[in-house]
Amino acid sequence: MFRPKTAEEIELLRINGELVSKTLAEVGKCVAPGVTTLELNRVAETFIRDHGAVPSFLGYDGFPAALCMSVNDVVVHGFPSDYVLKEGDIVSVDCGTLYKGYNGDSAYTFPVGEVDAETRRLLDVTKASLYKGIEAAVAGHRTGDIGYAVQSYAESFGFSVVRELEGHGIGTRMHEDPGVPNYGRQGHGAKLYDGMTICIEPMICAGGRGVYVAKNGWEVHTADRRNAAHYELTVVVRKGQAEQLSTFDYIEKGLTC
Ligand code: MG
Ligand code: MG
């Protein structure tokens, strides 16, 4: 049975949302050709711990790092490594925090130096599809309305939507009900209520939507080895319009952290 989050709970989720947003911005400042994803992971882990929080991904089901760092054809759940980023790569950074018993969870795909026009378009469309999803995340709608909004937008550009992974509710646990697929039919799926806190996170492929999991059991790759992008924000569902609990403004507007 659904229970709306209280104002106090939403405040704690907002604090976490702010922290993941700032952490992603700190990481973004360091994304450049020549940097390893392991170095970026260290930046994030230090920043999170300096703010009195814990990187919630570290040890989650055995995940080995603070961040998921997914380069190029890795859709999500990439391990930070000694891979050296190079001009033209894209790196999807997914960050989770745990502070005062509540979670933060957001992701952003950064271009490394200059990327080609098609890759730039993949990033722009994936991020815009997330905002389309947020627009649909209104009390009284259903998760299928969010999925439909994301999917119809992304596919109108010839891109495809990963089906195997989805967004989710968030609270004291990082993954709560309901699941929030990035595809679907309007009017179908779980009902959205005022005070429901969810993460919307489109994973969009430049080519086909087929994916496979690497031998390490985590890294999700596109089957055709083409690029994929991933953007995620946490919102609270409201009547009329959802309220964002995390933001890309620290990354994009150069706000000081
Ligand atoms: Mg995430
Ligand atoms: Mg998530």
Describe it for me?
The protein has 257 residues and is an alpha+beta fold. The protein has a single domain, classed as Creatinase/methionine aminopeptidase superfamily (Creatine Amidinohydrolase). Helix content is 29%, strand content 24%. The protein contains five helices and 15 strands. It has helices at 7-30, 37-50, 117-136, 143-155, 249-252, and strands at 54-55, 67-71, 74-76, 90-99, 102-111, 160-161, 167-169, 176-180, 197-200, 203-205, 211-213, 220-222, 228-230, 233-236, 243-244. The chain has a five-stranded antiparallel beta sheet with strand order 8-7-9-14-15. Strands 1, 2, 4 and 5 form a four-stranded antiparallel beta sheet that branches. A three-stranded antiparallel beta sheet has the order 3-12-11, with no helix packed on it. Strand 14 (233-236) and strand 15 form a beta hairpin. The model has no long low-confidence stretch (mean pLDDT 97). Residues 105, 168, 199, 201, 232 line the site of one magnesium ion. Residues 94, 96, 105, 107, 201, 232 line the site of one magnesium ion (MG).
Summarize the topology.
Layout lengths: L6 H24 L6 H14 L3 E2 L11 E5 L2 E3 L13 E10 L2 E10 L5 H20 L6 H13 L4 E2 L5 E3 L6 E5 L16 E4 L2 E3 L5 E3 L6 E3 L5 E3 L2 E4 L6 E2 L4 H4 L5
Helix pairs in contact: 1-2, 3-4
Bound molecules: magnesium ion (2 copies).
